[in-house]
């Protein structure tokens, strides 16, 4: 469970560092970026952490470089972990052929179908292995964790949160895929990763299905508030994200008051949208993590 | 002097748009990004502008995507223009061969030597043509302009400012090349662009030489304050940037009080450094531009 420093830059008083490590979950070398605030770097204070999950076509770099989150996180002394979005450099020849499956398209699930089932265990990687890795090697207190994500990473953040509600204080998302099992992206990727449509198997990797499942069993935490920002000019809104259907679903489930879903007028799907509102998301997480604003 | 919209995203209440246009100066199609704040977009208010010049290996995208400047500029209702760093798609075969000359390495000068002298007129492009282009086509008041840059772009910002002191309210730079004619980068590029070393010709493209020239003729504006941030862990500091020599020079010239040169402990040469301090630079420009902080 050792990690190797690839690069490190001072950033907002702390450091933005890239690490590589050999992952047991994905059976390959993974990279992640981490922002450690000043107190974690200088006095080895163990700080709370927000996992920031990227979307399709992203690596560990996009959110770290373009998201603008460290500015605000530094003021709360919160760490940010930016994982990669898939295994890399595997033996799977077709992994680089399509932007919706394979490299940069891990969907934060555990694949069960060949040739993906050896490496594409991104759920285990993000939910289980990575917290151990950062807790063991970095000045991060993983008992104070939360999770956010963008698009496919929003699907990842919400589904991982729902399955591990005691491991994360809260969750938020930008333009999340709220029903991977009915999204055209998911309809392409899920058969390859999980086999032909099986409501139980696919539903276990679908935010809406998971939420219905946990609410129906009274297993959705009542103290959690979920923040979602969605641009109205997002070209994927109508066909891929299921935002409007989800809003109806949470009303029917009687949990609409636990969701703050903000339609941001005129914004699209990209990082110019994320960076505009990321400060609100950091504030949302800081509150749940019990972090105080300094300066 | 028409421009074509390539892409546009809402960003901090305004828009981050990319335009293309056929440049007379560089005889090719150029791209630039521009951040227009809300008032310029919604009520066509003509707003002040800061030109943000990128460094070697950059395009018009790096500063716009990673610099983090729009967050603060939006609060002052200031526009940001992010030009490309060189001509593109020319007939010059060797333009893509080396990172210090050719594409992404225009050095903000007017080349006089073949094969560069047809297209590599980045000084004319930035100092003369681009202000006309943005004034004609966008809701920008170029009578309230200022200029900043990073590395090679810091050299560009300072040298263009010095030669056009009445066109820009102020100037600032991150890790600027302060003596292009003695920097190893410049020693590689300047012979190709300008011919063998000629103190007058090369000096006209060297910040330190230009400053001495204008100060000695009492032509350096006494009301201007220059802000420069320099990381102490910048790997290019010792060999390429001439920062320490420049500090001695401005003392000898008796103008040290017009320069705020801040050594930022532990920071390197990249955008994680820039984004950390860009807010201070926007504040510096806003003051000179007479812009007021809203919200």
H/I helix tally of chain A: 11
Ends distance of chain A: 36 Å
Largest sheet of chain A: 9 strands, mixed
Strand numbers in spatial order across the main sheet of chain A: 1-2-3-5-4-6-7-8-9
CATH homologous superfamily (4th level) name of chain A:
Alpha/Beta hydrolase fold, catalytic domain
CATH topology of chain A: Rossmann fold
Oligomer: homodimer
- Unreliable stretches of chain A (pLDDT < 50, length at least 5) are none
Structural class of chain A: alpha/beta
Give the chain pair forming the largest contact, with residue counts. Answer: A-B, 23 and 23 residues
Count of all domains of chain A: 1
* Large-scale geometry of chain A: globular
The portion of residues assigned to helices of chain A is 25-40%
- Output the helix-strand order of chain A: EEEHEHHEHEHEHHHEHHEH
Beta-strand residue percentage of chain A: 15-25%
Secondary-structure arrangement, i.e. CATH architecture of chain A: 3-Layer(aba) Sandwich
User: What's the mean pLDDT score of chain A?
Assistant: 97
How large is the radius of gyration of chain A? 18 Å
Short overview:
Two copies of one chain form a homodimer. The first copy, chain A, has helices at about 40, 60-65, 70-75, 120-135, 150-165, 185-195, 200-205, 205-215, 235-240, 245-250, 270-290; strands at about 5-10, 15-25, 30-35, 45-55, 80-85, 140-150, 170-175, 225-230, 260-265.
Characteristic key phrases:
homodimer, 295 residues, alpha/beta, Rossmann fold, 36% helix, globular
């Amino acid at each position: 469970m050792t990690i190797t420093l690839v690069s490190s830059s001072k950033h907002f008083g702390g450091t933005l560092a890239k690490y590589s490590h050999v992952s047991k979950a994905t059976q390959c070398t993974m990279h992640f970026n981490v922002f450690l605030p000043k107190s974690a770097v200088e006095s080895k204070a163990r700080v709370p952490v927000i996992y920031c999950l990227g979307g399709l076509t992203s690596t560990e770099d996009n959110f770290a470089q373009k998201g603008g989150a460290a500015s605000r996180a530094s003021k709360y002394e919160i760490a940010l972990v930016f994982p990669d979005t898939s295994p890399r450099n595997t033996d799977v020849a077709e992994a680089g052929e399509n932007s919706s499956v394979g490299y940069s398209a891990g969907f934060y699930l555990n694949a069960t179908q060949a040739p993906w089932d050896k490496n594409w265990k991104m759920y285990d990687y993000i939910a289980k292995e990575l917290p151990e890795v950062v807790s063991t090697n970095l000045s991060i207190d993983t008992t104070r964790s939360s999770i956010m994500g963008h698009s496919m990473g929003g699907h990842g953040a919400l589904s991982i949160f729902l399955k591990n509600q005691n491991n994360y204080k809260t969750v938020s998302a930008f333009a999340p895929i709220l029903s991977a099992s009915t999204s055209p992206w998911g309809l392409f990727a899920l058969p390859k990763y999980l086999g032909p449509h099986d409501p139980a198997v696919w539903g276990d990797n679908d935010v809406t299905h998971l939420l219905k499942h946990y609410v129906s069993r009274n297993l959705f935490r009542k103290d959690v508030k979920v923040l979602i920002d969605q641009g109205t000019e997002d070209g994927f809104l109508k066909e891929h994200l299921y935002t409007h259907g989800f809003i109806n679903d949470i009303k029917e489930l009687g949990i609409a008051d636990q969701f703050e879903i903000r339609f941001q007028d005129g914004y699209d799907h990209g990082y110019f949208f994320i960076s505009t509102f990321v400060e609100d998301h950091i504030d949302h997480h800081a509150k749940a993590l019990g972090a105080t604003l300094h300066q």
